[in-house]
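Folding Query — how this chain folds
Tokens — whole-number codes for backbone shape
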Amino acid sequence: MRNPNGFGCVYKANGNRRKPYIARITTGWDEETGKQLFKIIGSFSSSTEARNALIEYNSDPYNIDSAKITFSDLYEKWSAEKYPKISQSMISSYQNAYNACKPIHDMQFILIKKLHIQTVINDSNKTYSGKERMKMLIGQLSQFAIENDIATKDYSTFVDLGNRPDKILDRVPFKETEIKKLYESVHIYRYTDTILMMIFSGVRPSELLLTETENVHLEENYFICGIKNSSSKNRKVPISRFVKPFFEKYYHEAIASGSKWLIQNTEGQQMKYSNYNRDKFHKIMERLEMTHMPHDGRHSFATFMDRIEANKLCTQIIMGHSPKVLIDSVYIHKTLLELQYEIDKLENLFNLNEMLSLINEHYWRNESQFLTFASPSPSKIIHTKIS
């Protein structure tokens, strides 16, 4: 059947080609020779694919030059705009997702449909969250393409990732004997004290690492931290007497070095979570023969607060959880003093004097400076760096 005038045509190119069928359209006529001027839409594995591409073009004509942009071309353009605005961890996540999309890197983006996306995601060896990131990346590229008149539809929205697998977390609270061992080791392994700071405050590791000195209020005995949701962000967390010396030491150490970060790395810069997790926390656990994850401190806090029958709403507020009952979040308000009262109940579970004695014995080179901090000096802190 003959195509209408100006519709374009499909033909098979000579030679042994992977995609021999060419779809092209007429763009005009040469004024001197009277010959047709053509532009190629693309090359395809079958005549049916080529004809479908021709039909799609005629139903919604697009810029042929833009249509030649491949998945990789579009990614380069998108990332040039996106990456300066996001964190390095997010960049790494997107880069991993891009690498997993290798089978479609060289495809013209406008020819990538739901089936291609579904197949490349299904065939990847990624976890469910990894596949989510792949779908998210392709969705962002699609939106970028639509905004720049390269594509007209986001096919990633039709991709089915299946049911999310049940998340099994093996969280093990620290035992009392392990906590005592941590106190006994604060002078041996640098950053051991940060583990205790999480155990007795319930904050997430990333929240502690992102805490700035301007948000640490030692005289009022609280610090401000938080990530994620509105219940978590910018919340006031009381400082337990079990870890007050650690907060004081890190605060004055940061002030002395001119850093805005409460917890610094060994170069005086912000401690990244990946660095803390890999090079600090797990090495400390290995040296002390313990088996824990960084978030176990937070789970320990929740467990201990439940054990002393602390007010549940206070515990939720301290940890940055959204109250489960609407009436709690709307009508009941807790003061910082009430939060401090609940967190101080931990002294009924652990021997405060014994723990402070261990700090006094091990933490400072000059014990007369314990808890005074009149003119703190980082040189008087004896920590051994884990190499």
Remarks:
- The radius of gyration is 30 Å.
- The chain has 16 helices and six strands.
- Strands lie at 9-12, 21-29, 36-44, 216-217, 222-225, 235-238.
